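Batch manifest, entry 17 of 40.
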Amino acid sequence: MKTFTLVVGAVYGLLSVILGAFGAHALKKVISAEKLISFETGVRYQMYSALFLLIVGYILKFESPSEKWISILMIAGTFIFSFSIYLLSMSEAWNMNFKFLGPITPIGGLMMIISWAMLIFYFLKNRI
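Output type: structure tokens
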């Protein structure tokens, strides 16, 4: 789980830089300013999650289920949150209806929040 967490963190970081550059250069002409701001929010939170996963990957030993869930919730929550925002942002440009993802995006955010809360409890419990 440790290696998986570190690899996903690195992949999320890589993708956030690529998608951030794509948004800053290519999307300005394709999507509205409002959609671009949403896209950038997805990129920003994906980068925060990448850094979270890299740090957690080095700190945690992944010996307990709660340590594993800290990572799983952040990985899954980031995917649901950021990638649903990307699809919602691109809906006009691709002429596709992704509105069904609107209610799903907050679920990803909630998973990320729970992961952060679990990390806080882990630190308090283990006095790191």
